[in-house]
């Protein structure tokens, strides 16, 4: 004999089906509250990941701006040095000739291995940041899948408990 049947017998003419329904309803409310709490936690985690993504995007933009400013400063520095050199060499044909050679050397150095290496390092950093964004996207998708699985598990648990009640 089930607990519900025992209770109903001891308290007189209480409909056993109504009593069992009230017990199931109370358990469903508790299960629904747990589901809502888990859903809220999952949404907070998704929000945190989205904020993290925005921060990474902001840092990438900041890094690009810093790189542009650094290149601009280097160019200004090169121009200032060049202007000083031109001033010193203004009245000398030999110095003018040297400046021509120096300008050719500057052009050649722009395409040197150091410049190529710097560009490759910059590309590797961009690639790393893009991989980081892809990983965040995968984690976000993983969290959504976990949430779906947890909901499915909860629903199966409720079904199993309901079936157990019906069997007893």
Total helical segments: 4
Low-pLDDT runs: none
Note the main sheet.
Answer: none
Find the structural class using helix and strand composition: mainly alpha
Number of E-state strands: 0
Overall helicity: over 70%
State Rg: 36 Å
How would you spell out the order of helices and strands? HHHH
Q: What portion of residues belong to β-strands?
A: under 5%
Distance between the termini: 8 Å
Average predicted local confidence, pLDDT:
77
General form: rod-shaped
Could you name the key traits of this structure?
mainly alpha, 4 helices, about 170 residues
Describe this structure in words.
By secondary structure, this protein is an all-alpha fold. The chain has a domain at 118-154. Helices cover 92% and strands 0% of the residues. It is built from four helices and no strands. It has helices spanning 3-10, 16-89, 93-110, 113-167. Helix 2 packs antiparallel against helix 3 (93-110) and helix 2 (16-89) packs antiparallel against helix 4. The longest helix has 74 residues, at 16-89. It is rod-shaped and about 110 Å long.
Q: Helix and strand layout, with pairings?
A:
Layout: H1 3-10, H2 16-89, H3 93-110, H4 113-167
Helix pairs in contact: 2-3, 2-4
Keywords: Coiled coil
Coiled coil: 32-149
InterPro entries: YheA/YmcA-like_dom_sf (IPR023378)
